[in-house]
Amino acid sequence: DIQMTQSPSSLSASVGDRVTITCRASQGINNYLAWFQQKPGKAPKSLIYAASSLQSGVPSKFSGSASGTDFTLTISSLQPEDFATYYCQQYNSYPITFGQGTRLEIK
Amino acid sequence: EVQLVESGGGLVQPGGSLRLSCAASGFTFSDHYMDWVRQAPGKGLEWVGRSRNKANSYTTEYAASVKGRFTISRDDSKNSLFLQMNSLKTEDTAVYYCARSRYSSGWHTDYWGQGTLVTVSS
Asked: B64 to chain A nearest CA, in Å?
């Protein structure tokens, strides 16, 4: 199975900050990497697929990039509604696997 | 508007069975792969399994933790996805999400249902 390791596990930031979350795959995944946002008590929301493509309707403040087996999600100009938990997911091979999540909190 | 609505969750004893349903609307259901993803209380997301579309013969994939106990099926005529869960264990307690996947640079998830809670306890 492909292991997805996210860092950090939690992150404190202020409104207006720019933050970056990293996800590392244990082997190559052909950039078949997605990012999801989840707020407490709610279903996940899809943000990015293919490492850097935005889902329809997702604001451009969210961006993704890839370098080999390392992937990053960057959120610019944090707003109160952006504080949530973020997950990466590889869908290159089965079983599909998720990172453990990064909790983004207000400082 | 794409909508996915799960139902069928509840309390079941260990060793019991439960069948979850996901009613889809707002898109051509038969064109899409469909997944089940679960989340145990206070934990992260865990992929459960996938149903491919008609063009790919409705074949399925499962996580090792549920293989042989869970079965995914679908009825395209009713725009519905199902998860038959047998031999349930306490560790299967979770919110179960139905999710749609579309093809663009691989089959990736784009929409999620609101989830249904399954509690396995005596």
From this structure: 8
What pLDDT score was predicted for residue A17? 97
A98 has a chain B CB within 8 A of its CB: yes
Whole-number Å distance between alpha carbons of A104 and A81: 11
Query: What is the pLDDT at residue B105?
Result: 87
Question: A89 and B64: CB-CB below 8 Å?
Answer: no
Partners of A82 in beta bridges = none
In the predicted model, is pLDDT for residue B85 greater than 90? Answer: yes
- Best B45, B98, B102, B116 member to test A by mutation, with max A CBs in 10 Å, is B45
Where chain A has pLDDT below 50, the residues are none
Whether residue B14 is preceded by a cis peptide bond, meaning omega within 30 degrees of 0, is: no
Alpha-carbon span B48 to A57, nearest angstrom: 27
**Bridge partner residues of B80 (DSSP):** B23, B75
| Beta-bridge partner residues of A11 | A104
Has residue B66 got a pLDDT over 90? yes
If one counts every other C-beta atom within 10 angstroms of the C-beta of residue A57, the result is: 7
pLDDT in tens, B94-120: 999 999 999 998 999 999 999 999 999
